[in-house]
Design goal:
The structure holds two protein chains of two kinds. Chain A is mainly α. In chain A, about 80% of the residues lie in helices and about 0% in strands. The chains are: A mainly alpha, B mainly alpha. Chain A: Belongs to the binding-protein-dependent transport system permease family. HisMQ subfamily.
């Protein structure tokens, strides 16, 4: 019943999913934090840029962004992301698209975290003579990140599921393999069960573990 | 809230801000110049590629409008089917009976853990192998099936959270006057929680609209995104122009929906008559596992 497992590299496909997830997670965490810093900062132009970025990007379907990366950047503008092979280029473009999209949500999660920090913390920090950067990076953000673990965990779970969109540009991850398998084999239910099980293994523990972490690190007030 | 982080600015801070603004402006201009240059080098800014969208309505009436119609049709169908299903699942998850609560909980958590695309691919193969739905209709059926399965479970959680957000006194008072369990739910809790979770439900609509694009890219469902591909074939390799126009339409559509949800939320929060329980845009996003999807509050 599960003999298709020998014919197809299911584990390899899920490994690609994991790689997509982790690389995009790191990238979007960095870019998202910068965006959040811009959005709460004192420079109006940066605030405007951050707000515009978030409101535009999160209202575009991820599929559009990833297709644009492949058809627009790669095929039309010949941006190859430093790779001659189409597969590697598509993988990197998918990561780029996921970072562009996910960082908008990371930004909002961190901003929600910043909102939980009481005004007194920032006021006390300013009273000590810290400047904006110091207030943000020494006092507010460390507390904000601890409050942002749960929203960030939600973003990470959504990101894990969103990596399937890379199937639209032919990145050999789990959803593309599933599509190939159900087209070639007459074993719809076992194949779907295996793929669904794989995603449950990726997303459910993430939620449970990070939920536990968020309780552990939450600032007691 | 942003003013919490810094004081009213003095002369030095103002000078520094001007400097930051200038540096940021230069960086932004450099990026924009690079974008312009790379587009121009490949001839992507040629008027002939953009002309279909700015002169005449043919591109809109032949490609974009039918695509948009399909997008809206799939989204509306999914929402209409998912809402009652989600309500039933959400209420069932609050049941006093373990044999109802636990299996429903497993189903809801299962479908929230799986990507929509996987559900859509499953749906497509299911209709192809086990039903005689014509191959033209199959993509729509598959997209709607995937979206219903996923969004019913998200809506179930929204319904559950909406009911749990009501003050405990509501159900206690209802039971005290002798209503039965079903009556408490039907007459007291549901009517109040429906208004409370309205903003959350409206903002979930954005997620549905965005996910229909998957059907266009992977399942050959002729919706808005797929129309960009068709246009690029017809108007001569103007995929960048086509995708840009399509993206702008998505932004306008989704931004107005989220703005409406936020407006609704603010209105409900200000209302004095209610119990004060409101399930907002942010709550919906947290439940859907997509973080904040809402417009600016």
């Amino acid at each position: 019943m599960f003999d298709f497992l020998d014919k197809y590299d299911v584990l390899g496909a899920f490994w690609t999913t994991v790689q997509l997830t982790l690389l995009s997670a790191v990238g979007s965490l960095i870019w998202g934090t910068l965006l959040a810093a811009m959005r709460v900062g004192p420079v109006p132009l940066m605030r405007g840029f951050g707000t515009a970025y978030v409101n535009i990007v999160r209202n575009i379907p991820l599929t559009v962004i990833i297709l644009f990366a492949s058809l627009g950047l790669h095929d039309t503008l010949s941006i190859t992301m430093g790779s001659d092979q189409v597969e590697t280029a598509n993988f990197r473009l998918a990561v780029l698209g996921l970072i562009v999209y996910t960082s908008a949500f990371v930004c909002e999660a961190i901003r929600a975290g910043i909102n939980t920090v009481p005004v007194g913390q920032a006021e006390a920090a300013r009273a000590l003579g810290l400047n904006f950067t110091q207030v943000l990076f020494l006092v507010v953000l460390p507390q904000a990140f601890r409050a942002a673990v749960l929203p960030l965990a939600n973003v990470l779970i959504a990101l894990t599921k969103n990596t399937t969109v890379a199937a639209a540009i032919g990145v050999a991850e789990a959803a593309l393999l599933m599509k190939k398998m159900v087209e070639n084999e007459a074993q719809l239910l076992p194949i779907s069960a295996v793929i669904a099980f794989g995603f449950c293994c990726l997303t459910l523990p993430t939620g449970l573990i990070l939920g536990w972490v968020s309780k552990k690190v939450a600032v007691k007030r | 809230m942003s003013s919490v982080l810094y004081d009213a600015q003095g002369p030095r801070a103002k000078r520094r801000n001007v400097l930051y603004t200038a540096v940021f402006l230069v960086a932004l201009a450099a990026v924009l110049w690079w974008v312009y240059k790379s587009l121009d080098d490949k001839g992507q800014l040629d008027w002939v590629l953009w002309k279909p969208f700015f002169s005449g309505t043919e591109a809109y009436s032949t490609y974009i409008w039918p695509g948009l119609q399909n997008t809206l049709k799939a989204a509306a169908l999914s929402m209409v089917i998912a809402l009652p299903l989600g309500a039933v699942l959400g209420i069932a998850r609050l049941s006093d009976h373990v044999w109802v609560r636990v299996p429903v909980g497993i189903v809801v958590e299962f479908f929230r853990a799986i990507p929509v695309l996987v559900l859509m691919i499953f749906g497509l193969a299911l209709y192809a192998q086990y039903t005689n739905v014509s191959s033209d209709d199959r993509p729509l059926y598959a997209v709607v099936t995937g979206l219903v399965l996923y969004n019913a479970s998200v809506l179930a959680e929204i319904v559950r959270a909406g009911i749990l957000a009501l003050p405990k006194g509501q159900s206690e008072a209802a039971m005290a006057i002798g209503l039965r369990k079903g009556q408490v739910m039907r007459l007291i809790l549901l009517p109040q929680s429906v208004t409370a979770m309205l903003p959350a439900i409206v903002s979930q609509l954005v997620v549905v609209v965005k996910d229909t694009a998957l059907g266009g890219a992977v399942l050959t469902f002729p919706e808005l995104l797929a129309s960009a591909n068709t246009m690029s074939g017809y108007y001569g390799a103007n995929i960048i122009a086509s995708l840009t126009v399509v993206a702008v339409i998505y932004v306008i559509l989704n931004f107005s929906v989220t703005s409406f949800a936020s407006w609704l939320e603010g209105r409900l929060r200000r209302r004095k008559k209610s119990t004060g329980a409101v399930l907002g845009v942010q709550d919906a996003a947290a439940i859907a596992g997509t973080a904040a999807t809402g417009a600016e509050r």
